[in-house]
Amino acid sequence: FSDPVLTRDSVGAVIDLAKKFKEEKGRIPVFMEVCGSHTMALAKTGIKTRLKEYVQLIAGPGCPVCVTDQKSIDAMIQLSQEPDTILCTFGDMMRVPGSKSTLMKAKTDGKDIRVVYSPLDSVKIAEENPDKEVIFLGIGFETTIPILVLAVLQAERRNVNNFSVWMTTKLVEPVLRALLHSGEVKLDGFLLPGHVSVVIGEHSYRYLEEEFSVSGVITGFEPVQLLSGIYKLLQHQLEKKVKIINDYTYVVKDKGNVVAQQLLEEYLEAHDEAWRGMGTIPKSGLVLKEKYARYDAKKKFKISIGEPRVTKCRCGEIVRRLITPEECVLFNKGCTPTNPIGPCMVSTEGTCAAHYQFMREV
Ligand code: SF4
């Protein structure tokens, strides 16, 4: 899927179809890649830059760090100040600026904050530190949520009562619905996320064709897979078809991962979640059910935070696709990957980081 000859041929095939689209409609097609890993892969492989005259590829709301709202970041930083606590999180979260500080700064100030590869590691840390409260900062979409639940399940089985999760989870369907209802962006189709789809399955996207008449292709992350997805979206447009296609059948099944779905149903319930730049979207996140409240850090620790400080960072508009990173005055000036001002530059899946690393004119 990353063979250079096949990639070059695929680019040619996409450009040929995109030219036909332009001849017919008098404009270039606009497709959205929902997933942050797709944004990075399309930038890194040069596909975005190579196709930019023919196909507009816009980044969707699928970078979990970027869509975590400022208030949650501030709450996480404040949580790190609690005595006798160990905070565990994924590496990307360490440098996300809150209103006044970052978790990285809190760590250098002596707070016990640890980067872990999996929430399960933080259960082990809790077992090894019975006199401390261990909190995992759990952000993520459907791909990550099952492992958060597994950590709770493991804590339950091992009777680890000093472990909890600060849940700030997000779901793909409510945000895509909100996006389409807002009418802010006119789209000709979606490149649908490969990883999330492994969990939720192909059938979860039927509403796109049935209610919104928008096509989507579930695809992988290699150049030929990405180009195949774009090619199929163009085909749909030219044949005037609306369809959801699973182009990633080797890992994505129609019903998804039923075991993971059952786990989520057993432990979690829908919750109105706040998104950066998009406000609160009804039932767009999942939180632990009341019977598991002892593992819910938001219930265990009462953190009160004020309104976040307003900064010049325009990530809120980036995640709503209202501007490109280059339109932010701080891009490549005050804000770079080594000195990020906002989460879209911090995250390895962030749109600003992708533009800085792979699409910047030098
Ligand atoms: Fe925020 Fe930096 Fe992106 Fe501007 S370039 S929107 S400051 S992350």
From TrEMBL:
<protein>
    <submittedName>
        <fullName>Hydrogenase formation protein HypD</fullName>
    </submittedName>
</protein>
<dbReference type="GO" id="GO:0051604">
    <property type="term" value="P:protein maturation"/>
</dbReference>
<dbReference type="GO" id="GO:0051539">
    <property type="term" value="F:4 iron, 4 sulfur cluster binding"/>
</dbReference>
<dbReference type="GO" id="GO:0070025">
    <property type="term" value="F:carbon monoxide binding"/>
</dbReference>
<dbReference type="InterPro" id="IPR042244">
    <property type="entry name" value="HypD_2_sf"/>
</dbReference>
<keyword id="KW-0479">Metal-binding</keyword>
<dbReference type="InterPro" id="IPR002780">
    <property type="entry name" value="Hyd_form_HypD"/>
</dbReference>
<comment type="similarity">
    <text>Belongs to the HypD family.</text>
</comment>
<dbReference type="GO" id="GO:0005506">
    <property type="term" value="F:iron ion binding"/>
</dbReference>
<dbReference type="InterPro" id="IPR042243">
    <property type="entry name" value="HypD_1"/>
</dbReference>
<dbReference type="Pfam" id="PF01924">
    <property type="entry name" value="HypD"/>
</dbReference>
<keyword id="KW-0408">Iron</keyword>
